[in-house]
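Rotation project, supervised by the postdoc (A.L.). Task for the rotation student: set up a whole-complex structure prediction and record inputs and outputs verbatim in this book. Inputs entered:
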Amino acid sequence: MTVMTYADAAKAALAEEMRRDPLVWAVGEDLGRGGVFGQYKGLAEEFGPERISDAPISEAAIMGASVGAAMAGTRPVVEMRFADFALCAVDELVNQAAKARYMLGGQTKVPMVIREPMGMWRSSAAQHSQSLESWYTHIPGLVVVVPSTPADNKGLLKSAIRSDDPVVYFEHKNIWGLEGEVPDEEILIPFGKARLEREGADITIVSWSAQMHVVSEAATVLQERGISAEIIDLRTLWPWDRETVFSSVEKTGRLLITHESVSVSGFGAEVAATVSEHMFQSLKHPVRRCGAPRVPISYAPPLEDLIRVNEAQIIKVVTSMMTSEIQ
Amino acid sequence: MSASIPPNLDIKRYLNHHKMMNRIRAFEETAAMANEDGLVLGAIHLSIGQESIASGVCQNLEKDDFLLSTHRGHGHTLAKGADPQSMMLELLGRKGGICRGKGGSMHIADFSVGMLGANGVVSANINIAAGAGHAIKLKGGNNISCCIFGDGAINRGPFLEGLNWAGVFRLPVLFVCEKNGFASTTLTEAMTSGTGSKDRAESLGIPAEEIDGNDIVAVDECVRKNINEIRSGGGPRFILCKTYRLHGHTASDPALYRDQEDVDAAWKNDPIQNCKELLKNAGVTEKDLAGHRHDALAEMQEVYDLAKRAPWPDLQLAYEDVQDSGDPRERAY
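Outputs recorded:
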């Protein structure tokens, strides 16, 4: 095991895959200088400016050219800088990358990874803070990945690069510096396999990305109060590991899904609906969700904090779920 | 307008163009008939009147050169070497269609001949073509990427972004703008500020030429010269081909918004007629030239007859070719 940051783990993943496969290349703004968050630092020196390629501020071209480059036999890793900016390239992602294989009758695949740093971080306000992962789960053809730890960021990014599907890969900006143990041997984490963060008996809490760490803190407090929470990190939202969620809910009878993104039409709604459809009889309490209210993200810290799902909120919801049973 | 006869005209070359242009025209006329018969399911966009660009560009491409086309892409696809039978099956949404009946007219593609797809989104093919050129550069090939789009595409962002991209990375890409005068059913010039696509391309540092797209000699020679320059490492090139869309935006559009005088004049400048005159003046017999038209119509009629009898695609295809991870055949809900 080696302790490394979430950012360095991703860098190690990309470097390993670029050494393994000469067709892998990365492209985006400021990559030559290491990327806006330093997540590419040193890679241009090793791989040269053609494979760690700078790009104009031209999201539609970064995304669209990568679609063409993928169809023509390379494996681009596309850096969007902020998930918010990828919205300048939605046609290229949704109408082109996600659809080409299907509408061209399987004549091509579009192997590309779209890295979209997301989430609230340092008062970045409404255009640099969004968590839009649920949007992409709605689009057939796309894989959606939301790693929460350094080890997962390495193992999932490597799998994403080797995938023949377009993979929308959300890294959370607030945990770039988070340290964690990463296995020294090669890790390839399969899509659709959740990670059991903590075993518990009373309630199942499903989450992903940076929110996982908020959930862990809350669970520690809950444990002290005698409530045993089982925490599941979905890791990928399409495909998502419903079996692991189902068997946990079977055991606990209670389910809370919590995420940083807006609650309305967030992926928590999909998890809640699926569990309700398939295992209503196993539930001791209605499924609950925690998510942001449907307001844009503010600049001033107290306003920003107001919409952030925090430990106190999770503890409050879980406690209420434990004390108000369905009779 | 009759084309001038250049000295030492390569008659064989232009006979090939004449044959191809007639095949495209016949394919489009047959597709229009299929549309009237109610057998074409979605919208189709005919390239009648623009065949010289398809033939002049695509017959100068090698099989391993990439081509990205538009919603008006039947002619380009045919001229790149695709099989009209599987194209017609696709238009009718039948089994054996080139995209397995899942794309239709606007997503015609044939990767076996380097045709990476028509596109239902105007201008979207420009970035994709630039990217295919980027892949060629990364892999070190001597092939090129070619992108054909209409003048309606020049006011969308990808026109700027894709041309800039190809210029910045000095990619082997040939951009061809078919200026047929219309952006859907609106005059392009009425909705375009400034002097248009050629000047825009030049302002991005891309050498650009403007030619008469209905003159097969002009198209063939200009394209050949530019492709040679691209192959020898010259970076991207832009060719503006002036032409006219002799039919409406879609096969169901009577195009009554046009001046009849313009339409009449345009029919007198039919590129196939121009090519025919050229070859006649060079000594080819009327009979041989009429044979091209006759053979093309017979070929496409046969293609249509077979397509009409073909069954629908197998139902499980609806769930295939989506994705490897999260494959809907395992779980779609």
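Student's summary: Chain A touches chain B through 49 residues (CB under 8 Å).
Supervisor addendum: Chain A has a mean pLDDT of 97.
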